């Protein structure tokens, strides 16, 4: 129990360290946007300026440049609809409902993006409740939003989180998951343990969230590297993560099929031989090598060599149907990871030992 708590605390501290630059960007950017709108634009209460910084920078992962555009247009739409209707029908509960409904309806018709629609609705709420009767008009609030967006982008460029660390942390989670489920499947074959195989399958089915988080993190990393001069020199290192993104996703998908067949095979008369477990374990270790080499900013040559050794291995003789399917899926995982190291599909496929007969496996492209 104490070990789990310690691991949880370490994980939370690691996440905070990763997100600390975004927190600093939000805090500094919000204050600067407020001051800029007051001192440079002469707006007495520029509430949209700091709000726009928080939305554009955020503390999560996403596309900040697109956020700026959606923010400004969404705020303008909400302010415009709100100002127009409030000037006609006044303020109150039913007026608020009508203003929000119309602003969000127009936003949905123009752009179904969640941020765009939410900004239109929230801006309409502010116009209909907090700010009617003040001197500031729709154009002033639009200028506040634009000011906050520009300062938000400047904060990302001048106080940037490390794009390399963001991508590395999330790909590490994906490769850890792949290595773990392959190791569990290998152990299930060796021990003839159906429950362990079922646990591995359940864990494998829960890995897609890690893949999606990595994809979002990679987009954010690419955006930071493009915006921030501080990290322009890291683009080459980041390119390795771009190369690995799709193949690693495919490797996890094939691993799920492999583990599902492993579970089924343990109930058959002729379960898979221990040699298959050994091959799985070697691929599991190669995934960890790939994680370490990418994290160190190196060309993943050791991981590639380990995978090529598995690819060149002769398969065991006299295998049953399930074992053939498991081998087919394991071969697919190997090819996927070879592509993640930078090899082309044809070259990676050619590295596999030819099969004497069709395996009956359902691979995604081999």
From TrEMBL:
The chain crosses the membrane at residues 12-37, 43-61, 68-90, 96-118. It is found in: Membrane. It comes from the Bacteria. It holds the Pfam family FUSC_2. Its main location: membrane. Signal peptide: none annotated. InterPro entries: Memb_transporter_dom. GO terms for cellular component: membrane. Residues 33-154 form the Integral membrane bound transporter domain. The keyword Transmembrane applies. Residues 187-217 form a coiled coil. It is a multi-pass membrane protein. Keywords: Coiled coil, Membrane, Transmembrane, Transmembrane helix. This is Aromatic acid exporter family protein. It comes from Nonomuraea diastatica.
């Amino acid at each position: 129990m104490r070990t789990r708590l310690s691991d949880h605390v370490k994980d939370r501290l690691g996440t905070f360290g990763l997100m600390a630059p975004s927190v600093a960007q939000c805090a500094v950017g919000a204050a600067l946007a407020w001051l800029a709108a007051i001192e440079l634009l002469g707006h007495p209460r520029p509430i949209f300026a700091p709000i726009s910084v928080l939305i554009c920078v955020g503390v999560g992962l996403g596309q900040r440049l697109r956020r700026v555009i959606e923010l400004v247009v969404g705020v303008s739409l909400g302010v415009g609809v709100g100002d127009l209707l409030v000037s006609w029908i006044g303020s109150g509960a039913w007026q608020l409902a009508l203003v929000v409904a119309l602003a969000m309806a127009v936003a949905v018709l123009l752009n179904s993006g969640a941020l765009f629609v939410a900004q239109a609705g929230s801006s309409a709420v502010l116009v209909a409740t907090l700010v009617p009767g003040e001197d500031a008009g729709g154009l002033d609030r639009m200028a506040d939003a634009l000011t906050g967006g520009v300062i938000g982008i400047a904060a990302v460029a001048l106080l940037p989180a490390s794009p390399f660390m963001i991508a590395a942390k999330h790909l590490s989670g994906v490769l850890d998951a792949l290595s773990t489920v392959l190791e569990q499947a290998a152990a299930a074959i060796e021990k003839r343990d159906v429950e362990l195989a079922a646990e591995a399958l359940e864990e494998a089915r829960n890995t897609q969230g890690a893949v999606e988080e990595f994809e979002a993190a990679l987009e954010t990393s690419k955006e930071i590297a493009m915006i921030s001069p501080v990290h322009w020199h890291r683009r080459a290192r980041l390119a390795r993560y771009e190369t690995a993104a799709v193949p690693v996703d495919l490797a996890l998908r094939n691993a799920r099929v492999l583990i599902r067949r492993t579970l089924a095979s343990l109930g058959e008369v002729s379960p898979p031989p221990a040699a298959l477990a050994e091959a799985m374990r070697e691929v599991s270790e190669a995934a960890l090598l790939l994680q370490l080499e990418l994290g160190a900013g190196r060309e993943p040559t050791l991981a590639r060599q380990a995978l090529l050794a598995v690819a060149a291995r002769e398969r065991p003789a006299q295998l049953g149907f399930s074992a053939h399917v498991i081998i087919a899926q394991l071969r697919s995982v190997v090819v996927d990871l070879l592509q993640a190291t930078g090899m082309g599909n044809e070259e990676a496929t050619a590295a596999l030992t030819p099969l004497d007969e069709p395996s009956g496996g359902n691979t995604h492209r081999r």
